[in-house]
Amino acid sequence: MLLIHCPYCDETLPELEFAYAGEAHIARPADPSALTDEEWRDFLFIRTNARGKHFERWRHVHGCGRFFNACRDTVSDRFLKTYKAGEERPAETELEGVE
Ligand SMILES: [Zn+2]
């Protein structure tokens, strides 16, 4: 079972407390009506689907209910870091050697 650290509650809890909410750091276009159909499609559906370090959103649904971001290694399925929504993506040096 995965253990996930909620940066708001400052607790590490079982995965069952949380819900995956898609890839992180994808900003909604300021004016969607100005986009082409292909640009809109890309915003809605095209994701990096990275092998290795992947930045994603999670929600602590059975706790504080808040959304936060995480960096998870998709190969080992280990969380490298979790951080509050709105915070900058961690630098690569912050993620090295983290297990
Ligand atoms: Zn929480």
From TrEMBL:
Gene3D superfamilies associated with the record: Folate-binding superfamily
A molecular function (GO) term: sarcosine oxidase activity
Example of a GO biological process term: tetrahydrofolate metabolic process
Source species of the chain: Pannonibacter phragmitetus
Origin organism lineage: Bacteria, Pseudomonadati, Pseudomonadota, Alphaproteobacteria, Hyphomicrobiales
InterPro entries in the cross-refs: SoxD (IPR006279), SoxD_sf (IPR038561)
Protein name (database record): Sarcosine oxidase delta subunit
Domain of life: Bacteria
